[in-house]
């Protein structure tokens, strides 16, 4: 591409200026540039005539005067940017009587102007090794911009912006019981790390002066307790199972998740550590924690599960559907119309119409201290003030059996019965097949496959039956050999109450006061305190 340009030329009777058209989409000659050029060389001209000639784009040359053609060597204008990052030259051709400048002359001028860096040799060669590139901006020197570095930053491996948001079900409906409010973390899990800063490289302007890159920022990990810093101080890890939050660029991990109430404002809670609820748990909500669950209010028809203890300051009204499942102990002000399972002990002031099971002991104390209605089980001991009810509410208390082992024992009895029934019903088919085959009866491939599958099923079920019989025998031995258990009544035990100790039971026919019930010589006996 070549812009249009002009040249002073000889003409009959004088001299003039010839215009050369642009090529390959270059710019047309600028009238202002022509006038500026002639003024710099002090060449006389008629401005109106010149403008008219350029406007009409007449072929040939515009006559300027009846004198010899001025001797004008090749010239140029050099502009340097304010930041000294670029120098641009615009060359003008010599007149017919002038001469071109050389590369060495131009380069010497650059040095004179202190332009010593980033000289664009290829652009200069394009001009000086050709007939010239005129009236065109040529970048003859360009500085090197500094390469900027990058600031260090902290990359977090958990959701740093937790918002209350209901869970969408597969059918498109909204589950307001799951609000996604907790960032779970596990012990040893990486929570954040520093992506280190990268240093930049300095640049240089056309004067050879160094240009420093912008300074980069370092990053530091800010964190609270329950967090471990890596040896290189570039990563942090959780020291506990819990939940993680980011507050003012600081990472916090807690193994206790604390809320005021569990209701529609929180949704269900699923947490790896412990949960503390300062208020109440509303009906139908779920709290599931691997640690302890501490509730300062009331639980109403909810489902509470804890790997450790469950402590309820004001008790639980299960409304016939609420459940408590604790890996260890359960402590509650009262238990009413609920199902409670504890791996350890249960301590409460009253149990009313509930299914309560404890691995070790159940203690029902307090001013009233009663167990009325339902089924209450403990592995070793039940301590209660008042047992049953004067009005004859059906109350069953059971000790001397690990509730989980007994439940497994009962389940095994059912499973063994079903296996025996299946084997018994399948064997006639196999016997009949054998008899028919002995008589020479031919069977289709489908019939043969059916009989083969039935035979394999019987063998598999026989092996399963043998395993379950062994397990049941082991449980029977454990249950029979469990240490001495007792039901201790510190007040009254009312008629109609069923007391089960191990594999024997007794239904109270009268009122008993301040006594204990134990298994003696194969029967449940009442003994004095």
Automatic annotation (TrEMBL):
The keyword Coiled coil belongs to this UniProt entry's keyword annotation: yes
Protein species of origin: Candidatus Acetatifactor stercoripullorum
Name the record gives this protein: FapA family protein
Organism lineage string: Bacteria, Bacillati, Bacillota, Clostridia, Lachnospirales
Keyword Coiled coil recorded: yes
Keyword line: Coiled coil
InterPro entries per the UniProt record, alphabetical: FapA, FapA_b_solenoid, FapA_N
Residue ranges constituting the Flagellar Assembly Protein A N-terminal region domain according to the UniProt record: 77-247
Top-level taxon: Bacteria
Coiled-coil region: 451-478
Pfam family, any one: FapA_N
């Amino acid at each position: 591409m070549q812009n249009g340009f002009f040249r002073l030329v000889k003409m009959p009777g004088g001299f003039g200026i010839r215009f050369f058209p642009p090529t390959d989409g270059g710019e047309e000659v600028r009238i202002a540039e022509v006038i500026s050029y002639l003024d710099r060389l002090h060449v006389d001209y008629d401005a109106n005539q010149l403008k008219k000639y350029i406007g009409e784009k007449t072929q040939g040359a515009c006559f300027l005067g009846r004198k010899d053609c001025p001797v004008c060597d090749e010239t140029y204008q050099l502009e340097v940017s304010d930041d000294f990052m670029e120098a641009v030259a615009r060359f003008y051709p010599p007149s017919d009587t002038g001469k071109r400048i050389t590369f060495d002359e131009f380069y010497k001028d650059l040095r004179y102007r202190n332009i010593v860096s980033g000289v664009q040799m290829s652009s200069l060669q394009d001009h000086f090794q050709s007939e010239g590139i005129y009236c065109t901006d040529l970048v003859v020197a360009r500085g090197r911009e500094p390469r900027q570095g990058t600031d260090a930053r902290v990359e977090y491996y958990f959701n740093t912006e937790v918002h209350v948001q209901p869970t969408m079900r597969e059918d498109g409906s909204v589950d307001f019981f799951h609000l996604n409010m907790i960032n779970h973390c596990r012990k040893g899990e990486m929570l954040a790390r520093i992506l280190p800063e990268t240093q930049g490289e300095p640049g240089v302007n056309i004067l050879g002066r160094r240009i420093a890159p912008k300074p980069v920022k370092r990053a530091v990990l800010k964190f609270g307790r329950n967090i471990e810093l890596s040896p290189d101080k570039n990563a942090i890890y959780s020291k506990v199972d819990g939940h993680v939050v980011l507050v003012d660029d600081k990472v916090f991990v807690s193994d206790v998740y604390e809320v005021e109430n569990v209701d529609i404002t929180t949704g269900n809670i699923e947490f790896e550590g412990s949960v503390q609820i300062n208020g109440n748990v509303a009906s139908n909500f779920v709290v599931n924690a691997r640690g302890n669950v501490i509730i300062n209010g009331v639980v109403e028809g909810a489902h509470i599960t804890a790997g450790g203890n469950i402590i309820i300051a004001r008790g639980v009204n299960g409304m016939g559907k609420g459940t408590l499942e604790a890996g260890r102990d359960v402590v509650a002000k009262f238990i009413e119309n609920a199902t409670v399972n504890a791996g350890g002990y249960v301590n409460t002031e009253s149990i009313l119409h509930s299914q309560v099971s404890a691995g070790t002991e159940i203690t029902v104390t307090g001013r009233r201290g009663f167990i009325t209605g339902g089924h209450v089980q403990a592995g070793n001991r039940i301590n209660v003030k008042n047992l049953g009810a004067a009005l004859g509410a059906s109350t069953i208390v059971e000790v001397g059996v690990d509730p989980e082992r007994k439940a497994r024992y009962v389940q095994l009895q059912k499973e063994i019965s079903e296996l025996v029934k299946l084997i018994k019903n399948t064997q006639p088919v196999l016997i009949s097949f054998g008899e028919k085959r002995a008589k020479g009866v031919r069977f289709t491939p489908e019939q043969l496959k059916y009989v083969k599958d039935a035979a394999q099923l019987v063998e598999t079920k026989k092996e399963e039956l043998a395993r379950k019989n062994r397990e049941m025998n082991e449980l029977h031995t454990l249950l029979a050999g469990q240490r001495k258990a007792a039901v201790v009544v510190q007040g009254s035990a009312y008629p109609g109450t069923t007391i089960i100790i191990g594999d024997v039971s007794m239904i109270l026919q009268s009122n008993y006061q301040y006594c204990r019930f134990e298994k003696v010589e194969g029967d449940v006996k009442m003994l004095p305190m």
